[in-house]
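Bench notes, afternoon.
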Amino acid sequence: MLWINYPHNPTGATVDRDYLARLAELCRRHDILLCSDECYVDLYLDGEPPPSLLEVAREGVLVFHSLSKRSGMTGYRAGFIAGDPQLIGALRRARANFGVASSTMVQAAAAWAWRDDAHAAARRALFRRKRELFTRFFAEVGLACAPCSATFYLWLRTPGDADPRRYAAELAERAGILVSPASNLGVEQPYVRLALVPTETDCARAIACWRELIPRSAAP
């Protein structure tokens, strides 16, 4: 079995349809079950939606979707599995009654969320606005931020390639801003990761606090 996850957590990386097609063919030749975690596929911030594995293969593959990111329904634990009919049939026989079955209320809310695309588009627009708030601020003060075209994560290079843990601690202690050091996420690079999950108002407040930490001489 091979698991993939695009758009990717924690990096925010995306791949194209050709990459997925080549990977599906590789797995087909070697009899590998290819599973794709696509819970961020609806959170694209630029251009066309990221491709799904089901656009290039239907046999020997399974894709997993969730309302946690698409609809912000993290605690609902609602999602679905789609793909190869024989594999889905085997799954139904092996696990006819999931032990984590949701309540009727949650299932009704989930059914509405899957039918409605307008709220997903509104969430994309919201994350796009928050991304622009931070990337504009970083550009103003001379901080380097990696591009982000999907998910709700931003990767910021620490000033002077400072130790990410120390920089994260400084932001927390002096400004009340919580970020994740890259090393905590398995990336040994001088970066911290921001999750654009607070409200727009709180994002603006965080930027105002962050700006106070920037030496005046460092501003362009």
